[in-house]
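Hi all, a correction to my earlier message: I attached the wrong file for Glycosyltransferase family 9 protein. Here's the right sequence:
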Amino acid sequence: MSGPAGAGARPRLLVLRALGLGDLLAGVPALRGLRRAFPEYEIVLAAPEQLAAPAAASGAVDRLLPASAPGRAVPAALDWAGPPPDVAVDLHGNGPPSHRLLQRLRPGRLMAFAHPGTPEIPGPEWTADEHERARWCRLLAWYGIAADPADLRFSAPGAPSPAPGAVVVHPGADSGSRRWPAERYAVVVRELRRHGHRVALTGGPGEDALLDRVLAGADDGAVDVFGGGLPFDRLGALFAGAAAVVSGDTGIAHLAVAYGTPSVTLFGPVSPRLWGPPPGTRHVALWHPGPPGDPHGREPDPRLLRIGPDDVLKALLDHPEVPRP
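and the right structure:
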């Protein structure tokens, strides 16, 4: 799906969302709204190259245009080829850097939130205190495009799970402020095993040492370990076939929601009201209210540390949709 953009017979719609996995999954309802509104268009998503597979799995993207920048910054340029996009949609931020990036491509139409720095672009007002999924659907609604924030689910992959029926525990996170201590994850893993659950540990690139610390504390060699960052097809199969998923507030939590797998997500610096799972009993968000923290900080957020292993175990063991061993 990835590759350089080229001219073609179909009109083209470019979406900018050059962020992480969780951001992509939170933007799926808006992407699907665009897919329905522009069925004849080629929809090109400007996003990191490693997101090509989940973008394709959304069913809303035809092609990925590799684009990224450190942190959550706006890419310096887009490797767009051929005529300007017929439509460009800014799902990256509220501008003006992301607005200017798209304007340089001279699209026929640009959809974005209004900003004083780019008064020539009409759009709705940006609201900071708004759930991420609802925000981008509201943007499209302002332009007359219907999008449902609850339109999140992915179809189950055709491949079998590498650990069917396991409780998947993902201790990693992009920032220290959203990373619950490894020794607490170890307690959760140990107790789940004691209750008879199969447990699978997952980690992204560079997180093998973290998984080792969890394993050492759990003192159980019967845990399935998937380190180094699984390819998306295997990761999707693992999550779709899992009994439950336990993680911090990171992209993995959004993947559990996408596959409808029961989950327990540990929130710290950011309220689940802004990034949490949809309402209902299937997805449990653990959080202690307080003033917002730094989601990109280096140390675990104090709200996150107020969550104990007993809280997580109770949420899992009492969960009405988590199968008993």
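Sorry for the mix-up. The chain has two domains: 12-142, 167-317.
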